Amino acid sequence: MSDTKTLDYQTFRARVGDLRGKEYWRSLEELSRSDAFDEFFHDEFPRQAMALGNGVDRRNFMKLMGASVAFAGLAACQQPSESIVPYVKQPENLIPGRPVYFASSMPLSGYAQGVIVESHEFHPTKIEGNPDHPSSLGGTDAYMQASVLGLYDPDRSQVVRHFGDTSTWSEFIAALQPVLAAAKTNGAGLRLLTQTITSPSLGALIQQLVALYPGMQWHQWEPVNRDNAREGSKMAFGGYSNVVYDFTKANVIVSLGADFLGEGPGHLRYARDFASRRKVRKGTTTSINRLYVIESMPSQTGGMADHRFPAKPSQIEGYARALLNGAAAPSPPWIAAIAKDLKANAGSSIVIVGDDQPPVVHAIAHAINSQLGNIGKTVMVTDSCEVNPVNQLESMKALVGDMNAGHVKALVMLGGNPAFDAPADLNFHAALTKVPFRAHLSPYYDETSMLCQWHVPEVHYLETWGDARAHDGTVSIIQPLIAPLYNGRDQVEVVGALIGGMDQSPYDAVRNYWKTKVGGDFETEWRKWLHDGVMAGSALPAKAATASTAIPASGIRQPASGLELEFRPDPTLYDGRFANNGWLQELPKPVTKMTWDNVMILSPNTAKRLGVRVPDSWSNERETLMAKVAYNGITVMLPVWQVPGQPDDVATVFFGQGKEHQGKVANGTGFNTYKFRYSTAIHGGLGATITDAGQPAYIIACTQEHQSIDPQVIGGERGIVRAATFAEWQKNPEFAKNKVDDEDISEYPPYDYPGYKWGMSIDMNVCTGCNGCVIACQSENNIAVVGKEEVHRERELQWLRIDRYYRGNPDNPEVYNQPVPCMQCEIAPCEPVCPVGATSHSGDGLNDMTYNRCVGTRYCSNNCPYKVRRFNFFHYADYDTPSLKPMRNPDVTVRTRGVMEKCTYCVQRITEFKIAAERENRKVKDGEFTTACAQACPTQAIVFGDLNDPNSEVTKLKAEPTNYPLLGELNTRPRTTYLAVVRNPNPEIKA
Amino acid sequence: MSQIFHRSANTLSRVTIFGAIFIAGFVLWLIGGIVRSPYFTNQGIEREQPVPFSHQHHVAGLGIDCRYCHTSVETSNFAGIPPTQTCMNCHAQIWTNASMLEPVRASFATNTPIVWSRVHRLPDYVHFYHSIHIAKGIGCASCHGRIDKMPLTYQAAPLTMSWCLDCHRHPEKNVRPRSEVFNMAYVAKNQDVLGPQLVKQYNIQKLTACSTCHY
Predict the structure, then answer these.
(1) pTM for the full predicted model
(2) E strands within A504-660?
(3) Residue among A84, A95, A918 whose CB faces B118 most closely
(4) Total CB pairs under 8 A between chain A and B
(5) Would you write out chain B's pLDDT as a tens digit for each of its 215 residues?
(6) Most buried in the list A584, A698, A929, A989, measured by CB within 10 Å?
């Protein structure tokens, strides 16, 4: 089993053939189909078993069993006595035991996403999307879902610190006074450093502050840098502008390196709108939308593309110019085809550019949109959402320059962690220590706080009042769900302290600001905003704009030869601010399926050329090589990872990992790549050298091959993934049907489920693999985090996984995402094998899992063909940390060691709504509630409901011709079924 | 060489070998009995409370309805323990100097809750909803016993799973008209006829799937 073969890339390329080959695969290793691989997957859960690799001798076995028996006796002690504590005065509107829901907004890099927060006895426990919010429409991403863990994070900073020692807020205020007195006469020495700010009320306060101290300067810095988009909009429209896209009206979309479905303000809304034009249903006659993606690292958006063209980041400008010029001669033929398609859909197309691309590419895209008449139809140009849009890199450079020159006497930082994430060549931390007075408001006592005399703990958004703008400018209200857990302070309070004499709370600050803006009955308006979470009609109006077509020719980046390094924000940790969040650390990153680490992504060809090829080692250890990456004279060690679809000669690294001072989870996890992110190449560039570090192999926790369904049956008409083109679908809408799936073989008469018959439909055509559902499930069902070592042993507990399949040429494969929860089989293979009856069938057709009955034989898991059962090998749940207790969903048991667990369609929600309906003597209405995953899904790919209701949405979806079950030939009759993928490639583009 | 064992050892060993099965059976029976006994279930054990609150006095003596204090019993899974405010609604007017009520007054004055000792406790893996049992015509007294006769509250039923299932399998034995749910003294005259009739009328299902309570 452990025989190590190197990956025979040529062999599998030959095997796969051309791009439209029918073969599906899951990883490069699988594609090689070595004997070792097949042998490895012949075993169930190959890695889980390895803990016993060394064997247990008889003596140890007897010892352990003896101890078990002794402790079993102890466990049967009398019930502990428990106290019960009522309120002194019970709050109004609170029904003990029932949750209350509040609308709020989660700000990320300034931009708000609307949330509805579930609160049990005033403890926020679950985040849902706000259906009334324009950036969410009810969908949530992983950051929003995981923010509830961020609130209760025990590692958050809890006290004001002065040189690291415990201090108080009032001492901080006292220390500020001499600084402010000096600034009264000459404010030039006083500096404020913030992140992007869209909050009108906070913005007004900062502007008041800047006006108060003559010469004072306000700097802004955000490591997930959007300067290119800002400068591009200025180039095109003459001033900093905000661009909003309407994907509901777009027939053709061209993305130039833009991962608009996965990141950036408004990505949830864009995903919903994009999906609304992609769902293929009975009677769909007009063509679905078509997405072209020209990008470097394979992104979520690239995975959804009908045509994806891998390109080095520097090549994209050339392609953009070719599109603008109507695909002049030297460009490849597919550019002409795209240009033709765009022209045919003038006014109903979108060209969108990624933030990594230089401003000129943004300007080109605006010019193309303008030429096509898209502006005002699919592309809306508004004023900037930011209070004071600036070039943040220039702002940061100016600040560091002034600090080094000794001009800065006092620096107050509101959030952010610039000592960690500012461009490394600026040497922010060295410059910072030259400032006589430095204070940092931050949720963690982090790298920057440690360099400051004063550190003030910052509140979490669930603890404070505020406002922020959505991607389209809609003002969203931030409403607290809980009093600050750790004496945190809001940015408003620090700015108030700087203004001096202003002791207004964040609540007053928001209200006082809007009172002056809204005439008439403010209180009524305010109550309505709080209820809705948004100020209706406050979106910024679209301007009548025409983009300048005078594109500067200078500064064209020539398509470079040689290796390019590309910096991207970590897909699950953002700029590193979520690095201490265990849920997000353990979340398999889209595309790579990597957890707890950041890797350097290379194409297989490039890895081979550089001599850092990953061995195809199907031993029990999953490991990779460490590479030495030298860039700008700095060397960083990074594990190498090969990703199909990555363009050759591009090395992509994520930034955000490698913290040293944040918390128990973040510290020492991953590798810090900010170290060589220079201001001269903020998104990457030429000149990196990569060599084998000559170190022992590095263990990584990648879930790519975990919980694998037998890989022999991925493709084909019985396959796990079924796909066709739109043209093929029009010819044969039943392409995904297979007679075997519907055959009903049983010796027993069928059970007819007289009450409810719960079922789920997952539309693979619109699943972007964003992971929102995975964290939603984790939050709703109190799923524990297991850590890197245990993930490596295939013991991760997330009930819902997203399988990612490839198809075709490994240089540029098509990508298919498949969320896999429990199938709730009607004839469930897991049930008959349980020796203690811990898993059984309910009258609604749910495959129940009774934790208290489970003795942990794991037979059920071994017999599950879908591999959806998870076993608690150890005591993973944290029973002791006090701050984590109020976070848990009180309606779901916190499972302990030795217990099997799995998805049950959120049976706690089913029970709750069934009871509510029964009390009123009616049946549960369709859409009254849904599962956590379905509720979170930004594209509404997951639909849950009652199959006995002929009018329910899920019943209708099950009647779709593209509906198919997984492994239908096993006759398990799964209640979860899938809608097949229908892609819409341009027939003029040959593979 | 003399015999090491006495002759009687033969009999003893035979009895031990053949008796083992009976001994094991007896031990199992004993364990079964112990875990069902009040020692384990806490059935019938009066709890010491910070204030010796008498349901007998308040319910039977004064005729206060259950829902005056247990406000959420019809709407929530949890019946609710009254806040100190509820006690003070009356005791701000009557028995204002009773030393027995000192903890209540102290709680109200200092805004610190009274810590009661829990009488009815289900394990964390059991999810019980009061509201649906009330809605389906299960009387308070069916599970909680004659609260109106308890000077100090104790757990009247064993609260074991088999006890729950007895009723879930045969709801007709315990169901009563909705109008009598909060009537402690209700006794059905003809449960044999009325029971099945109410089961039909209230659409009561025999829910015995594991996920009815365990998730």
Answers:
(1) 0.90
(2) 564-569, 594-595, 600-602, 623-624, 626-631, 634-642, 650-655
(3) A84
(4) 133
(5) 677 888 888 888 888 888 898 889 999 999 888 888 888 888 888 888 999 999 999 999 999 999 999 999 999 999 999 999 999 999 999 998 899 999 999 999 999 999 999 999 898 899 999 999 999 999 999 999 999 999 999 999 999 999 999 999 999 999 999 999 999 999 988 999 999 999 999 999 999 999 999 98
(6) A584
